[in-house]
């Protein structure tokens, strides 16, 4: 579906490594704007001009903070289950 390898937790996708090496990360939508402004991510798109919404961010392959982004995704996942 996303053209990459996805990591699922409790039958929900939390991250996906795309074919180009970028990381698709599901985060708390309320933190999205701050993460885009401060951390170098961008709002993800599912094709040109098709916004995925504020929960999904695309992190460039050059960003070596995989643990940081995975931590955010797992934090959001755990909060969504409460």
Protein traits:
alpha+beta, TfoX_N, 5 strands, TfoX/Sxy family protein, globular, 82 residues
Give a structural overview:
The protein has 82 residues and is of the alpha+beta class. It has one domain (4-81). 29% of the residues lie in helices and 28% in strands. The chain is built from two helices and five strands, in the order E-E-E-H-E-E-H. It has a five-stranded antiparallel beta sheet, with helices on one face. 21% of the residues are buried.
Task: Give a short summary of the structure.
Helix content is 29%, strand content 28%. By secondary structure, it is an alpha+beta fold.
What is the element layout, followed by pairings?
Layout: E1 4-9, E2 12-18, E3 23-26, H1 32-39, E4 42-43, E5 56-59, H2 66-81
Antiparallel strand pairs: 1-2, 2-3, 3-5, 4-5
Structural class: alpha+beta
Strand content: 25-35%
Major beta sheet summary = 5 strands, antiparallel
- Quaternary structure of the protein: single chain
The rounded Rg comes to: 12 Å
Low-confidence stretches: none
Number of domains: 1
Organism: Kineococcus endophyticus
Protein name: TfoX/Sxy family protein
Domain TfoX N-terminal: 1-62
